[in-house]
Design goal:
alpha/beta; globular; three-stranded antiparallel sheet; eight-stranded mixed sheet
């Protein structure tokens, strides 16, 4: 049975919403709006098929101080309704977001509470039509949900919000199954990394919980050996991060942490997908929601992992997606980009923007917006040239296309950043 952080029961007081949960819900509903906007940019489009899965839905209502506040099921429903209304009003031929919702919870009391909440909020007529409330563990419900998505259409547009309280309720094998079975899934998975670090020991190396995340005895030994190093908790976090991302089958991911002033524990909010644009949009969203999330790593590219040649304390410097973090990120890109372009110019005749971003975006807080600003700055300083896909120079553009190449000019300043 899953350990529960919140409890709902008809007739009882609402649970009090923690700040870390508020931050997650804020990401959830805002990302839904961004996701729908991203997939509906073609003006002639009139319909979007979508499935949204809340794998640990809870009862749907909380107490926030003296106020009642909505949980993830209601926030997800309202985010889709708002996006659908805006699109329908903006398109001359109208628009329809055909979204199905699966709200899953293993607690029967939670399911009863959520059903009553949905009816009271006016969603009753949609129950068992496009809103499905499922009494089950997510693991047991997942195969039928995948089958439903596969039957709904060929694009398999789907968002899985897996807000587990701990770290072992969602098996990595299940994540792989979602990603391998569907063409376009995206997964937002919370992961209580500090709780796992506290749990790790030789005695627990073969427990069922560790099997869920595929940590064998030798993996545990390797991680626990880091306890003798300075900054050991940071090192173990990065080791676990590499382990998890390598086993999910996702090409793109974000490893950012939920920040809570009231909690000393770290929670990952892992976004997993196979699309470069999805990863970039999630990165941009973390920058917009300042002071809610942290990045435990450096400011530029190659920002995760442990480099023995670098001072570990630099990686432990707080990174809160605020103005200071932005300045540090921009400065890091200006420092790191020139030698990368120089090497690409020597080896391949230039650096293709998309190939570069795809190869470096996962381990960095740098987004395409940050990269574009620094590329334009270097171009304006005469340090590089931007060449379009057609081979034409772009000396005045303020935008950088994914298909553009960054190349060295024939003549460079004596003090050029690219004079490596």
């Amino acid at each position: 049975m899953t350990v529960k952080h919140y409890e709902w029961r008809l007739g009882d007081a609402l649970p009090s919403l923690g700040q870390h949960s508020f931050a997650k819900h804020e990401i959830f509903d805002q990302y839904v709006g961004i996701y729908i906007e991203r997939l509906t940019r073609t003006r002639s489009q009139t319909m979007l098929n979508l499935t949204i899965v809340d794998g640990f839905c809870g009862g749907g209502l909380y107490r926030n101080g003296a106020e009642e506040t909505e949980g993830s099921p209601l926030r997800l429903l309202r985010a889709v309704n708002q996006a659908d209304q805006l699109l329908n009003e903006a398109r001359t031929k109208g628009f329809s977001v055909r979204a199905d919702f699966f709200f899953v919870d293993e607690s029967l009391e939670h399911i009863k509470f959520l059903n009553a909440t949905l009816v009271s909020k006016g969603f009753g007529p949609r129950l068992n039509r496009d809103i499905f409330v499922v009494h089950s563990t997510f693991e047991n419900a997942c195969p039928a949900i995948i089958e439903h998505i596969q039957k709904k259409g060929t694009a398999h547009r789907s968002l899985f919000f897996l807000d587990q309280y701990g770290w072992s309720d969602v098996r990595l094998e299940t994540i792989r199954r979602i990603i391998s079975s569907l063409k376009n899934p995206e997964i937002l998975l919370t992961f209580a990394v500090d709780a796992l670090i506290n749990f790790l020991s030789e005695k627990t190396a073969e427990t069922e919980a560790l099997l869920a995340i595929e940590l064998a005895r030798e993996d545990v030994r390797e991680l626990m050996a880091m306890r003798n190093d300075e900054g050991w908790r940071f090192l173990i976090q990065n080791g676990l991060y590499r382990h998890i991302q390598s086993r999910t089958g996702a090409q793109f991911y974000t490893p950012f942490f939920i920040h809570s002033a009231n909690s000393h524990r770290s929670y990952w909010l892992l976004h997993l997908s196979n699309h470069r644009q999805a990863r970039d949009e999630m990165g941009k969203l973390h920058w917009r929601i300042t002071n809610r999330f942290q990045h435990h790593g450096g400011a530029g590219f190659r920002a995760l992992g442990f480099d023995p040649s670098q001072d570990l304390r630099q990686s432990l410097f707080p990174f809160m997606f605020d103005d200071d973090a932005m300045r540090r990120s921009e400065a890091a890109v200006l420092e790191q980009l020139p030698p990368m372009i120089h090497k690409a110019h020597r080896d391949a005749g230039g650096l293709e923007v998309e190939r570069f971003f795809v190869g470096h975006c996962n381990d960095t807080p740098v987004t395409s917006d940050i990269l574009t600003r620094q590329v334009i700055f270097l171009r304006d300083e005469g340090e590089l040239l931007i060449v379009g896909a057609d081979g034409a120079l772009k000396p005045r553009t303020r935008n950088v296309a994914w298909s553009d190449r960054l190349v060295l000019p024939r003549e460079r300043s004596l003090f050029s950043r690219l004079g490596w």
